Amino acid sequence: MRDQPRPLFGGALSAHVPHSSTDVSDLREIPDNQEVFAHTHTDQSLIIELLEYPGQVADQDAAKYHFEDIAGSNKAGSCEVMSVVCLSKADLCLSECSSAWMLTGTQCVSKFSEEARNTVRLHLGLFRLPQFSTDVLITFNDPQSISPESSSASADTHHQPWTLEDFQNLLQTLTLHNPGLFG
């Protein structure tokens, strides 16, 4: 049985957030345009962000645009896009989007400005909402290779990690309840 949808951004959005998730805002300050969840036992995380709609970027290039922006913010040593697919609006609850995309890629990044670099698979879900001048970006960070020198080296990867299916369920169940969220 699936969990009930979790309210996001004060209930303006909701989605099925995977099992074993901790709301990071209970642990530290999170920007107002983000909802962040960490897996209780692994080093996986989910970030749901409301971003300014880059109108100069074509829909089919927008997920890669955001992926490269994340790589720059993370000071990624390397990054690679593995796939970008258009999501069928018929499979999504967020019918207000003009298009939706899923990107899978990898980045070699360090945590907390450490020297050690970890290989992280990123799954991005992008919902384009030009009528609200907003892109909703959902990032699933799924570490693939952790450096022994990383602060993440002690993460327990055997405790039912989130799956791609968990992420896809979140994307499919994202629902807008209050368009006032976008101003």
TrEMBL record:
Gene Ontology cellular-component terms listed: nucleus
One Pfam family hit: Mog1
Keyword NAD attached: no
Residue ranges crossing the lipid bilayer per the database entry: none
Example GO molecular function: sodium channel regulator activity
GO BP annotations, alphabetical order: heart contraction; protein import into nucleus; regulation of membrane depolarization
InterPro entries the record matches: Mog1 (IPR007681), Mog1/PsbP_a/b/a-sand (IPR016123)
UniProt keyword annotations, A-Z: Guanine-nucleotide releasing factor, Protein transport, Transport
Similarity section: Belongs to the MOG1 family.
Protein name, entry field: Ran guanine nucleotide release factor
Taxonomic source organism: Gouania willdenowi
